[in-house]
Write a structure and sequence with these properties.
Length: 609
């Protein structure tokens, strides 16, 4: 085996053996023929810009974008953040922008002294997995209560937060910063690293064996090829098990030692990601059995056996590829069935390209002079080229769809971390395609020729292509853990929304019944808002009113008019705290009395985000 591995390909002589006769003139396709000096200079400038783009984009991503925010967002709560209640609530209810899992989290409520007052029975609400409720104990005293919550969003990313509400009146309470621990940094880093190793291992495993099955079955007996297949299978298995053990502690905000806690592991297996990882591990058992059989028999297998093995291998790889989209961004949002199908094809196209590339690189490193059927030849490179072309077409088609679905707008492409990472990835893929183009030119130059090929150009091209592929997989891993550009951009736009101001004329009748109401709702978002009301005469002078009351309703959600407590803050100025539990078009009704008998009610719509 050692002698065979050392002598696979022709030696890398710098020049061909001398032969009698005059030297032939260089052809346009021969290595000695080339562009003019000015053409080479222009090509170098273009290449320099291409290589500089990833560095510039990396600087934008790392320097200009903040950390990724939650994938599911807390849209509303009852009691609302900062609300002051006249009596103690029976429960705390949370509503999220998408479905959440609570097996690895929950809701904790603390009284002003820091003691828990919830019943530790967090469950989903009546509207489904987008709502979470936790009952409270009876006899709650006056003061400020703190709610700390933790959940796993539908795309398998941990989210957490905290807020306060008051019963009767505000008081000292628990510090929110003490309740929003993000858990162990080591656990988070290790889970992300294991996720990246899983991507890389599958990218190599699936396509490598497919390339050997259809193009070079005899090469499976080489030690370095056996090592490539075995390490990729083992890496995928170990990385998947590591993610399975680390996801629970990371989502629960626990330490690294909790990775070996049976209760945490059991809770992880009940999540969507846990079930996907468990299925992947079981599938890898079947893949391992098939892989062992192929390594020992493929070199001597007949055409029929190879076709059957290829079909089984494709089915198993498709099933494994599906374990990613079933628990990531593709499983949430619009067009979920189409998105999951496209994401599965994207992963398969990735392994079809990169796995074949891994075998080509493996057979090109330190070539010797072995039996030709066990090494790389021009026809096998041609097969890889065709497979890579089909894979690239699938990658582009599914990638464009995923970008449209997860980014949604040109602004989100450059205003969000996800968008910048996506542009970074596209640029790297373009550089990979440049390397593939060089390989294609090499193939066209040598296809159909009987002379021994010179592998130096191909070796450099595929080495660059493989190095870029590893970086692309790293960026892909980060993308899966980053909030999609569409939701991040929409959330940022909501957060940028300022106060809503309205001016409404009114006429309550009588001699002094006419006037204007200038109102401001700040910040016009879900939760606690400040309501300011300013009364003036038709010509803008400050005026007093005898009485004013306010109610708030959300007809679209069946919320009837709820009284808003307001009081006179200054002449012509009334103030109140407006608690809005959810987004929508709220209707604020102002009942204004200007005399003992003159009264009018005006209704003002306010869009709350």
């Amino acid at each position: 085996m050692q002698a065979t591995d050392r002598t696979l390909l022709p030696s890398r002589s710098p020049r061909p053996n001398p032969s009698p006769g005059p030297s032939p003139s260089p052809s346009p396709h021969s290595p000695s023929a080339g562009p003019s000096r000015s053409g080479r200079s222009g090509s170098r400038r273009v290449l320099s810009w291409l290589l500089a783009l990833p560095l510039l984009l990396a600087a934008l991503v790392l320097g200009g974008a903040g950390a990724a925010s939650a994938h599911a967002v807390l849209e509303s709560s009852n009691p609302a953040n900062g609300a002051t209640l006249t009596s103690a609530p029976a429960q705390v209810a949370l509503r999220f922008s998408e479905g959440v899992e609570i097996g690895l989290g929950g809701v904790k409520v603390f009284d002003p002294d820091g003691k828990r007052v919830d019943s530790n029975q967090t469950k989903h609400g009546p509207v489904g997995d987008t709502s979470v409720v936790t009952p409270l104990r009876g006899g709650l005293a006056t003061g400020t209560y703190t709610v700390a919550w933790r959940a796993v969003s539908a795309d398998s990313h941990p989210i957490s937060g905290a807020f306060t509400f008051n019963i009767g009146q505000a008081s000292g309470g628990v510090k929110i910063s003490d309740l929003t621990d993000d858990g162990s940094t080591a656990t988070d880093v290790l889970e992300r690293a294991a996720t990246g190793v899983a991507y890389l291992s599958f990218a190599v495993l699936g396509g490598a064996m497919l390339f050997l099955l259809i193009a070079r079955p005899a090469a499976v007996g080489r030690f370095r090829v056996w090592l490539l297949l075995s390490c990729s299978w083992g890496g995928l298995l170990l990385a998947s098990l590591a993610v399975l053990m680390l996801h629970g502690p990371n989502a629960s905000g626990l330490g690294l030692s909790s990775a070996f806690d049976a209760d945490v592991l059991r809770a992880t297996l009940d999540t969507k990601l846990g079930k996907a990882l468990a299925a992947r591990v079981l599938l890898l058992g079947a893949v391992g059995a098939l892989l062992g059989w192929l390594i020992t028999t493929l070199a001597d297998a007949g055409v029929r056996a190879r076709r059957v093995s290829t079909a089984i291998w494709v089915v198993l790889c498709t099933a494994i590829a599906f374990t990613w989209p079933v628990a990531n961004h593709a499983s949430v949002g619009r067009q979920v069935p189409i998105a999951m199908t496209a994401d599965t094809l994207h992963v398969l196209a990735m392994t079809g390209w990169l796995g074949g590339l891994a075998v080509v690189v493996t057979l090109l490193i330190r070539p010797g002079t072995p039996a030709p059927e066990a090494g790389l030849d021009v026809p096998s490179v041609a097969t890889f080229s065709r497979t890579a072309f089909v894979s690239v077409v699938l990658l582009v088609a599914t990638g464009v769809y995923a970008a449209w679905r997860q980014v949604g707008s040109f602004a989100a492409l450059f205003d969000t971390t996800f968008g910048l990472l996506l542009v970074f990835k596209v640029d790297l893929v373009l550089l990979m395609l440049a390397g593939a183009w060089v390989s294609r030119r090499w193939l066209q130059r040598h296809l159909g020729k009987s002379a021994k090929p010179t592998w130096a150009v191909l070796r450099k091209a595929v080495a660059i292509e493989a190095a870029l592929a590893i970086v692309v997989l790293g960026v892909t891993t980060v993308l899966t853990d980053t909030e999609p550009g569409r939701t991040a951009h929409e959330r940022a736009q909501v957060e940028k929304a300022g106060p809503v101001s309205r001016t409404v004329p009114f006429d309550a009748g009588g001699a002094a019944g006419k006037g204007k109401l200038d109102l401001t709702v700040d910040p016009a978002r879900v939760g606690s808002n400040e309501l300011h009301m300013y009364f003036s005469t038709p010509i803008g002078e400050v005026r007093e009113v005898e009485e004013a009351t306010v109610t708030a309703a959300l007809p679209d959600k069946g919320i009837d008019g709820a009284d808003v407590q307001i009081h006179r803050a200054a002449p012509g100025h009334w103030f109140g705290e407006l608690s809005l539990p959810m987004a929508g078009r709220w209707e604020l009704s102002f009942s204004i009395r200007t005399s003992d008998v003159d009264r009018i009610t005006v209704t003002v719509p306010v869009e709350v985000k």
